Structure to design on (56 residues):
């Protein structure tokens, strides 16, 4: 796994959060979903790093 999925999701969050700040309420829902996805991708990456450490 690389960092790219995490960076892509952060970019989505940035776009949706900016829309939310301008008053688009539904963008807030999408921003929250993106945050949840970031949490999942970060956890997967964390697990992968931990497993890699065990192998070495």
């Amino acid at each position: 796994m690389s960092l790219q999925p995490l960076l892509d999701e952060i970019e989505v969050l940035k776009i949706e959060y900016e829309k939310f700040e301008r008053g688009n309420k539904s963008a807030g829902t999408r921003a929250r979903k993106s945050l949840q996805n970031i949490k999942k991708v970060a956890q997967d990456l964390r697990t992968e790093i931990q497993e890699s450490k065990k192998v070495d």
